[in-house]
Amino acid sequence: MKKHHSYITAVAALVLALGGGLFVANLRSAEATAKTAHFARPAQSPVAPKSSAVDLNLFSAMADERVVDAVKNDLATCQAALNAAGVVFKQVANVQEGQCGYQDAIEVKASLTELTPNPGAPEHLPMTCDLAARLHMWERHIVIPAAEKYLGSPVKEIKAFGTFQCRNVADTDKLSEHAYAKAADIASFVLADGREISVLEDFYGKDAKGDFLREVRQRACDLFDVTLGPDYNEAHRNHFHLDVGGDHACR
Fold first, then answer.
1. CB 138, CB 113: distance < 8 Å
2. In what helix (H) or strand (E) does residue 187 lie, and over which residues does it extend?
3. Which of 64, 106, 152, 206 has most Cβ atoms within 10 angstroms of its Cβ?
4. Distance in angstroms (rounded) separating the CA atoms of residues 179 and 99
5. pTM of the prediction?
6. Cα 37 from Cα 187, distance rounded (Å)
7. Cα–Cα distances in Å, from 25 out to 7, 28, 31, 188?
8. Lowest mean pLDDT: which of 24-28, 54-58, 114-118?
């Protein structure tokens, strides 16, 4: 009888111990679930948007030539893709300045980060929809994860020297892609913790800032037709030139 009682007592103790362990585990699980993610890492496999067959949220879109062709060659498809990705933009009036100008351009008002003019740059940043779509993919799939990886803080702002400017490529008689609002010159990145990572000051740094800048420049080559930076020449020592003009270069 005593043995039977001891057996029951042992079983009861085991059940209580297991139950207590599960209770604690559940509490820990609930606590972990309740925590807000520290970084603004975008979802890699969201639900496909209903308004467009082109989903800029998907990492695989970067390597899909059909996506590039779709946003480049069909304005309605491009704008639907931006809307589906949550990019807020407005249409801007057409501009013609001699051989320079653009049609059906937009200005991005809100995205995952703010795109703002660098001090001294033109106030407005008009660009083709194609350029806006690729900038969004670069921001989402490359810039934000790289900032988390190297710098431990989300990017809240990307500063640009400009997009549209009626001028030639330096030291040539050929019009720049800026003359058609098909290029952006990126000067720096402002983090949520207040740090500013500058192409001019930090690109060659042997630290996390330099690692971040070199990665986002190199991987921009996967998205843009032409990517140029400080390694290219002195004229690009303070910015990344990113364009969708159709030529191809990664330097």
1. no
2. strand 183-191
3. 106
4. 8
5. 0.79
6. 28
7. 27, 5, 10, 44
8. 24-28
